């Protein structure tokens, strides 16, 4: 591999890439769960949730590429298999039997909160390395996941 000199030492680049790999795995896991729920939601709120879940999984689908490309720009391979994602992700897989609609909403809200936490956990390493491109990716992900979690939690209120 060619030498990389972007102003971030190799050790910091490795730590950032490791954190971003976890974020990528968790994003893909939540993407797949959300897509699953989109297909399998039923009940009185079917149209609303079916459409909402599609918007959410589409947003996450569009997010995985910038995360993976940032890992590559740092000089590391991006994980890209279910086996790697399962090792890296702290999120549970989608339930084998689709839950009721409001349980889906609750599970997705918790998933988005977890992704916001993951992005926030990586941020100090990125900040210490003065890595603005990675900070930008993380800031965008935190904003999206926190807003999405809020909107999902709002559906759970009486």
Automatic annotation (TrEMBL):
Q: Name one Pfam family in it.
A: Ferritin
Coiled-coil region list: none
Alphabetical list of SUPFAM superfamilies matching this protein:
Ferritin-like
CDD domains membership: DPS
Q: Which InterPro entries match?
A: DPS_DNA-bd (IPR002177), DPS_DNA-bd_CS (IPR023188), Ferritin-like (IPR012347), Ferritin-like_SF (IPR009078), Ferritin_DPS_dom (IPR008331)
Q: Where is the Ferritin/DPS domain?
A: 19-158
The similarity annotation says: Belongs to the Dps family.
Q: Report the protein name in the record.
A: DNA starvation/stationary phase protection protein
Q: Which organism is it from?
A: Limnobacter humi
């Amino acid at each position: 591999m060619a030498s990389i000199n972007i102003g971030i030492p190799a050790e910091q680049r490795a730590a950032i890439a490791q954190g971003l790999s976890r974020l990528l795995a968790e994003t893909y896991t939540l993407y797949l769960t959300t897509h699953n729920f989109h297909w399998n939601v039923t009940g009185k709120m079917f149209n609303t949730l079916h459409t909402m879940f599609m918007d959410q999984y589409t947003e996450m689908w569009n997010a995985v590429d910038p995360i993976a490309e940032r890992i590559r720009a740092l000089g590391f391979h991006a994980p890209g298999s279910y086996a790697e994602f399962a090792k890296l992700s702290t999120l549970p897989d989608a339930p084998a039997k689709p839950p009721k609609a409001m349980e889906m909403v609750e599970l997705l809200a918790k998933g988005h909160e977890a992704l916001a936490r993951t992005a926030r956990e990586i941020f100090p390493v990125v900040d210490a390395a003065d890595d603005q491109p990675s900070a930008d990716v993380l800031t965008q992900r935190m904003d999206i996941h926190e807003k999405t979690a809020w909107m999902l939690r709002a559906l759970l209120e009486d």
